[in-house]
Every structure is written in C-alpha cells, then in structure tokens.
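User: My collaborator sent over this chain with a note saying "see what the structure looks like." That's all I know about it. Can you take a look?
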Amino acid sequence: MFLRSDYPDTIWQMIVDSELRPNKNYRYSDLGFYIIARIVHRLSGLPLDQYVRQEFYDPLSMSRTTFNPLERIRKEEIVPTEKDDYFRYASLQGNVHDMGAAMLNGVSGHAGLFSDCGDLVKILQMLLNQGYYGGRQYLKEETIKTFTKRHLGSTRRGIGFDMKELQPTSKPNICSFASESAYGHFGFTGTCVWVDPEYKLIYIFLSNRTFPTMTNNLLHQEDYRGKIQEAIYRSFLPGFVQDQS
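Assistant: Without extra context I'll predict from the sequence alone. Here is the result:
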C-alpha cells in the first residue's frame, strides 16, 4: 500500500472535525485510544511505540512485544491475519490488520501491537500486582484501580478495560464464573486477555480468526473463548463452580 506521507494529518483533522453525538449513552469507539497515543507523544516527547518500549517492554524483558514487528521479528514467526482483497490487496503478515492504524504507519493507541503469551503474561501480572513487577513499580496502584473500575452508568465498560457484564438482561460477555472485578478485552482478530483479581487468574487466548477472511465469525458465534475460560474456572475452582451451578 502506498500513502502520502502527510495523510496522517488528514486523519487527525477528520477526527478533530467529527461531530459530537447529542446522545450521551454508551457507544463503542476507538477514537479515545487514537487520542491517547497522541497525548503520550505530546507529554513524553516520544512516539507511542518508543515510549512503551522504553518504559515497559524493555524493562519487563518483553522482547516479542512491538509495533511494526517486521522491523524486529522474522516474518515466518508471525501468523498471518487476513488475505486482504479489498484494501491492501495482499496477505497481511506482520502488518497491522486495522486499516486506521495501518494508515498511521502501524502505530496507534487502538491497534497495531503484536505480542505473544510469554510477554503478555508479564504485563498482565504487573497489572494484577497493582502496578508492581520484578522489583519495580511501573504504575501507581491508584492508576490501576481507576482504569479497572466501571464507568459511571455502565454495567460492562471500565475506564481502560472491558469488564464483566452485570446487567442480567444483557448477553454475557465472559464466563459467568468470573468475578465482578474481572477486566480485559476482546480483539477483533480473535485475541482476548482477562485478569480476575479476586481469584488471581490470568486468561490469554491468541488466534487469527480473521484468516483467511474476517467474515469468519465462528469464534464469536460459538463462544469458544468463553467456553475455554469456563473450563479453566471449573478446573481451577471446582468447589466454587459446584456452589454456583
């Protein structure tokens, strides 16, 4: 894909010019996370990818976590995400699947990060430890608490994470055995990570369900991620599960 070098400025201008919704009810959007990346750049003086590598990934020895992984990792070690026949007209392998992040040179707050289970468990354990890992305090405990609590008026969405749906009439988003304090996120390409502070449990599921096409939605339709999560709880907390069944 070829793109004018100044096109990211056009994207940002479109975001700035977008109208605000008069209705203040919940709507899923990536725009806040686009903007967070820009805030990080402005406050730190470093692009998002450089900042997180300097402050988190290198100190945590997360050598497999990076934006634009082809700069650091062999292509053969990266699973493909889609045979794109509508935008880039190529098989995507080592390039971010999200089109907006791709047009921002692969680095954005909402998409573009590549990793593996070995690395992800480190940063999730750091969050589970209230910001502490390996003798270092990476984030304040108050920051963790703020980003892992529900937004006012929401039964599911936290400030920085998705959380367990509490509305009985709404479709469950995670295993019913998870505690109300569990937080995490589901990724479009089939990934998910969930942390349950009450049971000190970390659940990581990585897949490329969008390959060869993103119209393949069986992972969501059959709730395989939720079923795997339930199996983990059943094996991890048999007494608790029996009481709740």
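A starting point for your reply to your collaborator: The chain has a mean pLDDT of 93.
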